[in-house]
Every structure is written in C-alpha cells, then in structure tokens.
Amino acid sequence: MLKQILYWIRYLTADTPWDTGIVPPEIIELIEGEQIPAGQAIDLGCGTGTTSIYLARNGWQATGIDLVGRAIREARRKARRERVEGKTTFRRGDVIKESCRLDDRSFDLAVDIGCFHSLSAQESRDYAAMLKRIMRPGGTFMLYSFSPTAPDEFGYTPEQIIDLFTPEFGLNHKALGIDTAGGRQSGWYRFTRK
Ligand SMILES: C[S@@+](CC[C@H](N)C(=O)[O-])C[C@H]1O[C@@H](n2cnc3c(N)ncnc32)[C@H](O)[C@@H]1O
Fold this sequence. Notes:
Blueprint: H1 2-12, H2 25-33, E1 40-44, H3 50-57, E2 61-66, H4 69-81, E3 88-92, H5 95-99, E4 107-113, H6 121-134, E5 135-146, H7 158-165, E6 169-178, E7 185-193
Parallel strand pairs: 1-2, 1-4, 2-3, 4-5
Antiparallel strand pairs: 5-7, 6-7
The chain binds S-adenosylmethionine.
S-adenosylmethionine binds at residues 3, 7, 18-19, 45-47, 50, 65-68, 71, 94-95, 113-115, 118.
C-alpha cells in the first residue's frame, strides 16, 4: 500500500525520470535483431506502456500490469493513439496478485524494466514462483534490475537474482553496468524458461 502511494505521488507530480518514451536497446535487439517469433508478452510494472506498445507494434499481444491507475490510463491512451489497443491489455494492480488471474504457461516473453527490484524479499520469491508458472517452456524473460551497493539500498544482487529464477529458468546472458539516470548499479538479465 505504501509503495502504491509513493508511486502514485510520483506519477501525479510527474517525478518519473524512467518514463522517457524510449524502448531499451536490449529489447529492440531481441525483437528486431533476433526477430524472435511474436506471441504473448507480459510487461511487469509497465508504467505508461512504452514497451508493451512497442511489442504490440511488432506483432505481439501484450499485457501490461502496473500499480498506478494514472500510468495505466496513459498507457491505454498511448495504445489508442498508436492504434494498437486491440493488441494490448493494461491492468491496474499488483504484479503478483494480478498474475493469479493469468493462465499457466501462457506467455512467450516477460519483460520487467525496473519493477522487480523494488519488491520485498517475500514478494521477490512470490514473483519468481508466479513467473515460473505463467511462462511457456522456451519463453524469454528480460529483466532490468538495480543491485544494492549499501545495506539501505533496495534491489537484488546478481547472485540473488540468479538463485531466485534458476534452475527453472536458465540464464543466457547478464550485462552489469551503471544506470544512466540514477547512477545505481544495475544489470540486464536474459533467462529462458526450461
Ligand atoms: C521504474 S518504473 C518503470 C516503468 C516501466 N517499466 C518503464 O520502463 O517505463 C517501475 C514501475 O513499476 C510499478 N510497480 C512497482 N511495484 C509494482 C508492483 N508490485 N506491481 C505492479 N507495478 C509495480 C510502478 O508503479 C512503476 O510504474
């Protein structure tokens, strides 16, 4: 609830530095570079839907979930503007609770750009269990997450992330770096559901 209020305030006051409208190159490389076959995608913590809409424009059926109604309403507006409302579904709610309504093995691609890293330890375990359930074998999970460098910083270390998602997911690739906006240690992780 507290987190929901904090994010709600950030969208209300336009304090959303992540909402650049830019699709990360890691996602573009996967979709346009590798041209993985389009299917069902889920965008966890989708914000205003930039990545969901990009996926829909590239032939995917995309479901975006976010806590904040204002972000979800903006995502729906953007989807209408881009004429992909039929290829997108936006749901307001918690990523773990909303996923209870999703069928087992129903997604070929999951994307999380900046949502997972703010979950509590218990939520991160529930999230991993949820993702293992809803992903199809062979499905791809792209995760962008902060890593803590001090005890009071939120996020998960690469070791914690790999522990949470393996062995049900195999790690294909990990690229660690520094977030350009906030200067935090961060990483891109690519997993495949076994
Ligand atoms: C850093 S923003 C990134 C938004 C979007 N992925 C993007 O790249 O523009 C994190 C988003 O996750 C959402 N979020 C955080 N915790 C969530 C949760 N438990 N369930 C659903 N959404 C959540 C926030 O409301 C926020 O929109």
